[in-house]
Amino acid sequence: MSAAPSRSRVTGWHRRIARLVLGAAAVFWAVATFTFCVQTLLPGDRAELILNVKAGTFTQPTAAELAQINARYGFDAPLAVQYGRFLGGLVRGDLGTSYQTQGPVRAIIAEQAAPTLLTLSALALAWAIALLLTVPSAGRDGSLARLVSGFQVAAAVAPPYWIGTILLVVLGVKLRLLRVESGTGPAGLVMPAFALAIPLSGFIGQVIREEFARVLDQPFVTSARMRGMSDLAVRVRLVLRHAVLPGVTLSGWALGALFSGAAIIETVFARPGIGGLLVMATSARDVPLVTGIILAAAGLYILANLLVDLAYPIIDPRLRAR
Amino acid sequence: MTLATDILRRPEAVPRPRRPGMRRPADLVRGLPGGVLVAGALIALYLVMAAAPALLQTHPPFRTDLAATLRPPSLDHLFGTDQSGRDLFSRVVEGTRDSLAIGVGATSLSLTLALLLGVTAGLAGGALDRAIGRFLEVMFAFPNLFLALLLITVFEATPVTLIAAVGIGTAPGYARMVRGQFLAVKGAGYVEAARALGHSRLRILRRHILPNAMRPLVAMITLGVGQSIVWASSLAFLGLGVAPPSPEWGALLDAGRNYVTRAWWLEVMPGLAIIVFALSVTVVGRHVQDRLDGRAGTP
């Protein structure tokens, strides 16, 4: 009697995972198709653009030059064939060839592993700040709690590049606590990570705070208090687990925002990275490099959200019943 | 990926039906919390700066003075001077109009797109709703800035591209909110009651669903303008914004970047102008949102 329902629950759970993975794959395919359309349908002739980007000039190339480029990049093939080649390349991990360097886009992106490190450390730091500020103060009405919540509202609207600049000036130039040009090592990660983490901690903190206050009023919390559980234990061991769920959802979304923020922050701290690369590729109109970077970021974003969806039933066992 | 969004939408979010009759303006101001009053006053100040910059400017914003370059903030130069000796405060005031125009333009575009998608999905339901939901998921996978940069790569950087880039980049988030709002209102008890009373579908749509589903729009507009200005300034900060002579806030930030170690005010002050504005509209927008959700205490 107990075996049958549990087995059906397991297969239901597997089916849910399969559905989530397929959904993520479908979204990635759509993103890839969109970037392909942008590459092929953009105004102006691509062969002309490549020649101009390579030469750094804006001249009208001859028909022979154009034909050579068209043949080399396969632009003379029908669109359907080009699309097939593009998707085939994606499956093999080939993102095309940069107009500027003529090298494979994948190799150029692979050199920039550091920004991923920056985004992940910023995400972890944002959670740490948000939890430290929110867990003791949520659901209270004292002046300190109000101050903390006001700080979180203000932090959430502050642009990361501005916070980065302030940190740079105060810590780096005035106090000389941290070296401004710390390079790519772990020391150089501290200020950019904080600059990205502070606004995000404001967002996460506000979302957790709202949910935290709601859960604090639940009957099971009151009953735990009556059993003599201390306030801190109630907050950390009972309420937090409920309150982090919206924050986890937000983190999946935040990864996209962090990629954007990291690109800007790298410019502030003059760090080499995907952001500088992207901005350079944008101003040079190096379309394959821009789309390659976007595809890589979108892929990571989709993967992160897939993990968030898979993590829900682990955080909240009630969701397994669905 | 649908579960992730459903978690955030709690049943309490179902808005209460609109109360009949408007309060008089005087009553609206009297019960406001202090923070909202300050934020409202600041927004009014920004509007004055945009409408009549000359009223507040202490110096001509484009006059260079090579005897007073890179001066720190003082009583004469409230925000200091830049590398050409131009008064930064007057330049920030001068840039208000362009900055607000970019923010308002991007928000209008973003909300128009969001309403088109969100209302269609919310009203049609079924296959169309699912298709739009999928489309929004795909749009979400592009980091905002990257989508903006893609547009700038394809169409070259002009103020119009900048507005379009920010507007399109922020639209999916609002579209999702509008759609969720429609679904919440469609399932609300008063809509069911109207249906049970035998009202026509058009009447229910016009009298009950649309007014209630559109209510968060006020809050979305205020929050959106602040966010759009921050986004547009980020693009300008990267050197992809409006052409140099305009002292738009993002352009001021971009120009000050090379002097940041010697003249912090060139970076801090325009940033402060952006943050104070974004914060003010956020505070007002949230207050409006809370009032409409019936969460804040009525005076």
From TrEMBL, chain A:
Coiled coil: none annotated. It is found in: Cell membrane. It is a multi-pass membrane protein. InterPro entries: BPD_transp_1_N (IPR045621), MetI-like (IPR000515), MetI-like_sf (IPR035906). Residues 112-312 form the ABC transmembrane type-1 domain. The chain crosses the membrane at residues 20-42, 113-135, 147-173, 185-204, 243-269, 289-312. Keywords: Cell membrane, Membrane, Transmembrane, Transmembrane helix, Transport. Belongs to the binding-protein-dependent transport system permease family. This is Nickel import system permease protein NikB. It comes from Methylobacterium crusticola. The lineage of its organism: Bacteria, Pseudomonadati, Pseudomonadota, Alphaproteobacteria, Hyphomicrobiales. The gene is nikB_1.
TrEMBL record, chain B:
Residues 96-285 form the ABC transmembrane type-1 domain. The keyword Membrane applies. The chain crosses the membrane at residues 28-56, 100-124, 145-168, 217-243, 263-285. Residues 1-25 are annotated as: Disordered. It is found in: Cell membrane. It holds the Pfam family BPD_transp_1. Keywords: Cell membrane, Membrane, Transmembrane, Transmembrane helix, Transport. It comes from the Bacteria. Belongs to the binding-protein-dependent transport system permease family. PANTHER family: OLIGOPEPTIDE TRANSPORT SYSTEM PERMEASE PROTEIN APPC, PEPTIDE ABC TRANSPORTER PERMEASE PROTEIN. This is D,D-dipeptide transport system permease protein DdpC. It comes from Methylobacterium crusticola.
